Tol-pal system-associated acyl-CoA thioesterase (Paremcibacter congregatus), 153 residues
Amino acid sequence: MAELSPHSGIIKDREHILPLRVYYEDTDAGGIVYYANYLKYMERGRSDMLRGLSINQADMLKFLDPDDIKFVVIRAEVDYVKPARLDDEITVHTSVSELGNASLVMAQDVRRDGEVLARGVVKAAALNQNDRPARLPGDVRDKLKKIVKVEDS
């Protein structure tokens, strides 16, 4: 796995952990995190998870190799448990719960001091340059297997 800088998080026990801080721009008039921002936090977690596994999305988007793909979110579900507030230190925990031939399902939690604030499930599909479903390339699949928490589907 790639060496991660502190701002990209770490991979530990088959999950990626990304530390974040809640800024003023993240909050609503009541001083709590606006609900849609949890989706942004989760996106950052997924992107940095891939980066930590040495899966370079920017290079794949150039479609220089016939096996190149892009990931697109086809389903997202979030349960909001407790609010995060201005200046909170939170962590986004991301793991792969299902690894299919052309898709993956990621389980994500946003936590503060270990307490779950929001829980999400995101399904992403692999598409080729023509926006058609594509099999996950072998090297990408092998890297993702390193953090699968549940058996392959």
The mean pLDDT is 92.
